[in-house]
Amino acid sequence: MLLRQLEYLVALARERHFARAAEACHVSQPSLSAAISKLERELGVPIVSRGRRFESLTPEGERVLLWAHRMLADRDALQQDLSRMRESLSGILRIGAIPTALPAAPMLTTPFCERYPHVRITLESLSSREIVRRLDEFELDIAMTYVDSSVRAMPLYEERYVLLTPADEEIASRPVARWADVAALPLCLLTSKMRNRRILDGIFADAGVQPVPVIEADTVATLYAHVATRKWSSVIAHAWLQMFGTPEGMRVVRIEDPQRVPQIGLVVGEQVSMLARAMLGLTRGLDLRGELDRLLHKHLDRREL
Q1: Which of 16, 71, 131, 254 is the most buried (most CB within 10 A)?
Q2: Alpha-carbon dihedral 114, 117, 119, 123, rounded to 10 degrees
Q3: Contact between 48 and 8 (Cβ < 8 Å)
Q4: Model confidence over 55-113: pLDDT tens digits?
Q5: CA atoms within 13 A on the CB side of 283
Q6: Per-residue three-class SS string for the chain
Q7: Predicted confidence (pLDDT) per residue in 219-260, tens digit
């Protein structure tokens, strides 16, 4: 039995006319009549006394109408209760994020706090391995990390890589850089303990080269601090532009598409908290992929646009 059928019955009892009831429900008269007939078959009782037009409800129909009012009222009360729960949702949402996804985190946390002003958020920078452990041990509610084939993941965006290089480098004038040429630059990259670096090493290997960075760091901020001296180049994830932008005297250059494109997403544990469900629900209405792609185009050399 569908609540919609009960709505049709309530409208018919109020209007006492099939056509007017259908109009009030914004459906065709045959659709409303078919729904009432289906309700009669499902309940196994006659509900409407019919002649050439509506006559009345049967005694069984009057009883069904009474229950219909109750059930629809309960439906409305449930919706109102859930609405109040959303508005008064409180507690601490514990989020873990890999360092390369942290710059994109405000794109989620800011609208979340606007919708749920009584919720507080703790956001920790963690390795992908630590995130898995903390989710399994219920120390996190949700995480932003690399996703593979997890059924408990909601994809957010593909991590796209670009070259950040001094404007006076020859490669800065190219529309697209080759991975082999990028490997030959004086590079500053994350350490091999970071999954982002291991992904990049795999991409370089697919291109038949192995980078030997002059400087390795374990934070994105440290990379940017060195790149800002305009003596080093780096391969960065495009989401980093959200926080750090393009330092003065540097250029963002597109790199040829790799064979493998890693994906960032929201991941939850086996037990999903109400706060994590709220974050997932809000995220479904956002377009991080589109926002980050537009951000990347703003930072690319204008000759490419």
Answers
A1: 131
A2: 40
A3: no
A4: 889 999 999 999 998 888 888 777 767 766 666 777 889 999 998 899 999 999 999 99
A5: 25
A6: CCHHHHHHHHHHHHHCCHHHHHHHHCCCHHHHHHHHHHHHHHHCCCCEEECCCEEEECHHHHHHHHHHHHHHHHHHHHHHHHHHHHHCCCEEEEEEECHHHHHHCHHHHHHHHHHCCCEEEEEEECCHHHHHHHHHCCCCCEEEEEECCCCCEEEEEECCEEEEEECCCHHHHCCEECHHHHHCCCEEEECCCCHHHHHHHHHHHHCCCCCCCCEEECCHHHHHHHHCCCCCEEEEEHHHHHHHCCCCCEEEEEECCCCCCCEEEEECCCCCCHHHHHHHHHHCCCCHHHHHHHHHHHHECHHHC
A7: 888 999 999 999 999 999 999 988 888 888 999 999 998 888
Size of the chain in residues = 305
Looking at residue 106, its amino acid is P
Residue with tokens 């229950």: 67
